[in-house]
Amino acid sequence: MNYAENILGTIGNTPLVKLNKVVEGIDALVLAKVETFNPGNSTKDRMALKMVEDAEADGRLKPGGTIIEGTSGNTGMGLALAAIIKGYKCIFVITDKQSKEKMDILRAVGAKVIVCPTDVEPTDPRSYYSVSKRLSTEIPNSWYVNQYDNPSNALAHYEQTGPEIWEQTDGKVTHFVVGVGTGGTISGIGKYLKEKNPNIKVWGIDTYGSVFKKYHETGIFDENEIYSYITEGIGEDILPKNVDFSVIDGFTKVTDKDAAVYTRKIALEEGIFVGNSAGACVKGLHQLKEHFTKDDVVVVLFHDSGSRYVGKMFNDDWMRERGFLDEEITKAEDVIKD
Ligand code: PMP
């Protein structure tokens, strides 16, 4: 018999899939690490379990404890799965920008979800950073995960995702491209790959409204770069400790519209149903295409599933309201044909 002891045993070993149509015009072999194959449908299962195990090991998380985190959903899902198997309670503090699907999914796996306003300073007592920190001091036997600064986040990718990419490409990977939020994914994988081969280039995908690109290029934390944006999961208005700028060669910023349009293209042209940071990554690849040659093996990581965005970029009305849907001209023959 071949089975996992519980659902946590199915985390990792996700497939690498060649992209075809959606990368036409890019002169390289482009392979997607499709992290939706994890049980919580995102790469975050890996770091969530690692953060829980490390906190158990050094006593920060005790039997019957409550896990508290400010999470945009994917980390919450991973933490909730670990909590179910290991017997913890979960409270997640989320911003009102996040999709309703994400909140519903977290509640479905037993978590309590608290919604906070997006458009307040991180230091504002109403922000999701402040609320999660405060709750962790008020609720007895609780542990505040803090994925932004928790080193187990990047370590999970250094120990698992990086080696998987190296082995799946027989060490032939030349570039790694990924969206950056907490920085755990890019820093853990980037560190591992560069230790294996320092010539590998690591590119981060950033959003307009986020501080990463400017900070990387100038060392300046520019508050003027900060404004609200639509793309979920990537870009920040803070510098998380998990972003290791020393393993990142550069950033490119992708607009909300391009991220949304390319998320739909990935589903329609490749049959890979993934979330908006994957769309941002593929558009980012096109923006970076002069960096690639035909002998290159470019790995791009798709963080999460399209199911969390059915009411957003996969919904025509939502797209149209934001001016993201380039209206087709209705032709008589198409109407008749239908
Ligand atoms: N894409 C999505 C959909 C995410 O939820 C996240 C996590 N915030 C990221 C990308 C970025 O990953 P990381 O936090 O490891 O930088």
What's a quick, concise take on this entry?
The chain has 338 residues and is of the alpha/beta class. It has helices at residues 44-57, 74-86, 100-108, 128-138, 151-168, 184-196, 212-218, 256-270, 276-287, 316-321, 332-337; strands at residues 16-18, 29-34, 66-70, 89-95, 112-116, 142-144, 175-179, 201-207, 250-254, 297-302. The mean pLDDT is 95.
Record field, number of beta strands? 10
Count up the helices. Answer: 11
Give the N-terminus to C-terminus distance in angstroms. 50 Å
Write down the overall geometry: globular
- Gyration radius, to the nearest Å? 20 Å
Order of helices and strands: EEHEHEHEHEHEHEHEHHEHH
Sheet with most strands: 6 strands, mixed
Strand content: 15-25%
Mean pLDDT across every amino acid position: 95
The set of bound ligands, ions and cofactors reads:
4'-deoxy-4'-aminopyridoxal-5'-phosphate
Helix and strand content put the structural class at alpha/beta
**Helix share of residues?**
25-40%
Spans of at least 5 consecutive residues with low confidence: none
Instruction: Order the strands across the largest sheet as they lie in space.
Output: 1-2-10-7-8-9
